[in-house]
Amino acid sequence: MIDISPKTLGERLELALAESKLSQAQASAVTGVPQATISHLIRNKARTYKNSRALADGLKINHDWLVYGRGGILNHDTYYIPIIHDYFRLRLYLSEKFLEKRTHFIVTEQNYGKCMFATVLDTSLLICSEKEESEYIYRNSELLLWTESNKVITNNHSQWIGIFLIHEKRSYNITPNFLIRE
């Protein structure tokens, strides 16, 4: 039986394989780590492994959880995305990574790319990022056009300046305090 609170890398690896219903041979195939090594880590309840990153990446699990027992098994990373309300502060953030101390953040496990930020438009919170040229050209979803005087959602892909990719749109029945501009 598997301990529900594994204490070692080997125990957590055994739990990860059980949860994902993978055999050691299958785990070896997706991670590139020899099956004998995986077996050794589990059998000896190994505390460390020099190639733990390959295991975590191949199994698509959280490296910190596998090695240290921190976080959840699947949440690889946590991203703190600043909520930016006005154009001037957005420009400062994008050019100098400057944020005021009073800046609020939302947390996500999704990495949406370069310079992620969130902003409020009407009653929605938009999670956006700078566009990457390759993604921008082929993308068929909504875009945020944000200038000094205007913030609108558009599908116009011909514009280049002031356009940001919208990755997620969150709506709230009751507006949380952190969305209200101070």
From TrEMBL:
Superkingdom, taxonomy of origin: Bacteria
CDD domains per the UniProt record, alphabetical: HTH_XRE
HTH cro/C1-type domain boundaries: 13-66
Any GO molecular function: DNA binding
Protein name: Putative transcriptional regulatory protein
Organism of origin: Serratia symbiotica str. Tucson
Biological classification of the source: Bacteria, Pseudomonadati, Pseudomonadota, Gammaproteobacteria, Enterobacterales
